[in-house]
Design goal:
Number of strands: 7
Number of domains: 1
Strand content: 5-15%
Number of helices: 8
Structural class: alpha/beta
CATH architecture: 3-Layer(aba) Sandwich
CATH topology: Rossmann fold
Distance between the termini: 42 Å
Strand order of the largest sheet: 3-2-1-4-5-6-7
Order of helices and strands: EHEHEHEHEHEHHHE
CATH class: Alpha Beta
CATH superfamily: NAD(P)-binding Rossmann-like Domain
Helix content: 40-55%
Shape: globular
């Protein structure tokens, strides 16, 4: 009898939004390494940094998609094209997001609207489109990108924090609605991770020291692969009884 749970994604098809760099890139590569073919949702179709070729070199199939997450037609088309190309869609990773840095009293309406459009509206409608496919298949996994910012207050990040808290609750709502279709919906909530997006802020020695101090247990900045590993787990058969949950990948920040 086999006792070790399976983390194998062989034969699965995954779609990762915001796949061009940072966490999205690491997640796409990790899913491919685990055996999945991967569709890459890209804000600019020709800006994948060679990711598709890297995945193909691993012996997996890759499909680059034009998916600006502020454009509902591109979101829907990206899901449809994935299914047409691969025949099915088993895993959706809603990774795309932005985090404009501004004091609450200075937030402009256009920044507010764009942050909600990408982080929250884009996540919802990508999940809706993928969910419809997964309902017909009677199976699927959705992994949303929340953040520790959805659980603790980060100064100058009020709108971002709000969207990430909403994603954690949206994850519960979708999990409850879609469980009867054998669709698992979970989220991951990282702390500060070394990515191109965080590089400017973390380059400030004072800010870097403050962040490391607040990561109470491990006292270090995370690496993209440490988030990607949790996504692979949640997408795998090993996580078959986990749904509606947000996994904090925060080095102990929220435990303090």
């Amino acid at each position: 009898m086999k006792f070790l749970p399976s983390f194998d994604l062989e034969g699965q098809v995954a779609l990762v939004t915001g796949a061009a760099r940072g966490l999205g890139r690491a997640i796409a590569l990790a899913l491919a390494e685990a055996g999945a073919d991967v569709a890459l949702g890209l804000r600019k179709l020709d800006h994948d940094g060679g990711l598709a070729e890297e995945i193909k070199a691993m012996g997996r199939r890759a499909l680059s998609l034009q998916m600006d997450m502020t454009d509902l037609s591109q979101i829907t088309r990206g899901i449809d094209d994935t299914v047409k190309h691969f025949g099915h869609l088993d895993i959706l990773v809603n990774n795309a997001g932005i985090a404009p840095d501004n004091l609450a009293e200075n937030v402009r309406e256009e920044d507010f609207d764009r942050t909600l459009a990408i982080n929250l509206k884009g996540t919802f409608f990508a999940s809706q489109a993928a969910g419809r496919v997964m309902m017909q298949q009677r199976r699927g996994r959705i992994v949303n990108m929340s953040s520790q910012a959805g659980f603790v207050a980060l100064p100058t990040e009020s709108v971002y924090c709000m969207t990430k808290a909403a994603i954690a609750h949206l994850t519960k709502c979708l999990a409850v609605e879609w469980g009867k279709y054998n669709i698992n919906v979970n989220a991951v909530a990282p702390t500060f991770i070394h990515t191109p997006g965080t590089e400017p802020a973390l380059a400030d020695p004072k800010f870097h020291a403050e962040v490391v101090e607040k990561i109470a247990a491990l006292h270090r900045i995370g690496e993209p692969i440490e988030v990607a590993g949790a996504v692979v787990f949640l997408a795998s058969p090993a996580a078959s009884l986990i749904t509606g949950h947000t996994v904090l990948i925060d080095g102990g920040w929220t435990a303090n």
